Structures are given as C-alpha cells and as structure tokens.
Amino acid sequence: SETYVGACVEALESGVFRADIPCRFRLIPEAVQRLIDGVDRTVKHCLTVEEKVSLDDVENFDEICDDIRSKLENLRDNPSRLDKPIIYHLDVAAMYPNIILTNRLQPPALVDERTCAACDFNKPESRC
User: Fold this and answer.
1) Angle (CA) 37 41 43, round 5°
2) DSSP string, the chain
3) What is the pLDDT of residue 108?
4) Is the pLDDT of residue 66 over 60?
5) Cα end-to-end span (Å), the chain
6) Inter-residue contact 17 to 88 (CB < 8 Å)
7) What mean pLDDT is reported for the chain?
8) Predicted confidence (pLDDT) at residue 88 exceeds the cutoff of 90
C-alpha cells in the first residue's frame, strides 16, 4: 500500500494555479476588511522589524499605504472574482510523503542504499 497512515492533511482548495489560466475566487469581505484595518501597522512592522528601515527614511509611507488599501478595498467590494492568479504556491509540507516521492519533489533528499533498494520507484532508468 502506498498510503500514509498517522496524520491528517487538510487543504482549503487543491489544484494548480497558473497566471495564464483564469480561476474563480470567493473572498470573505470581513477578512479583507481586517487586512485593510491593519495596513499601517503591517507596513510599519515590515519596514522597521523585517527590513530594519527607519520610518524617518521613508518618503512615501502614506502613499504606499493608501495604494495597498485601495487594492484591498477593490478585493473587499468585489469578492466573487474570475482572475488570473499571480501568486504561485506549492505547500509541500502539507503533502503526503508518498506524493512528494512519487512526484520527485525532494531531489536533494539523502537516502542510503537500503532505503533506495526498498523503494517502489527504484528502476535502472531512474535518476533519483
């Protein structure tokens, strides 16, 4: 059996999201509003904590925050969308180990000869 026993993997939506294929998205307006409410705080945190930039050195802080808010407001006001996604994400950590191995998503993984010999995909033409 090639099933994985002992854990539960849950995904909100599965599939491949590509920038050239439109996809339907249903957003929760209240969740987007929470993002809007936190724009100033989030940008300040990103600048000062993550990027180590002083707010005194930022010339267009309000302009950037207004731009982000306006884009989020558009998302909030139009929650049912048919858009071409621009973010690619493959959550390998949420995949079953056999799917990771089957699709060879971990090429740098190191195994010993015994593990390789016991693998279902161990064939002379394999380049593991």
Assistant:
1) 110
2) -----S-----S--S---TTS-EEEE--HHHHHHHHHTHHHHHHHIIIIIS---GGG-S-HHHHHHHHHHHHHHHHH--EEEE--------GGGS-HHHHHHTT--TT----HHHHHH-TT--TT---
3) 47
4) yes
5) 21
6) yes
7) 79
8) no
Q: For residue 12, how many other CB atoms are within 10 A of its CB?
A: 4
Question: Per the structure block, which two tokens stand in for 63?
Answer: 């302009």
The dihedrals phi and psi of 24, each to the nearest 5 degrees, come to: -85, 135
Cα 118 to the chain's mean position, in Å?
Answer: 33
C-alpha 22/C-alpha 1 separation (Å) is 37
For residue 101, give the nearest of 126, 73, 68 by alpha carbon. Answer: 126
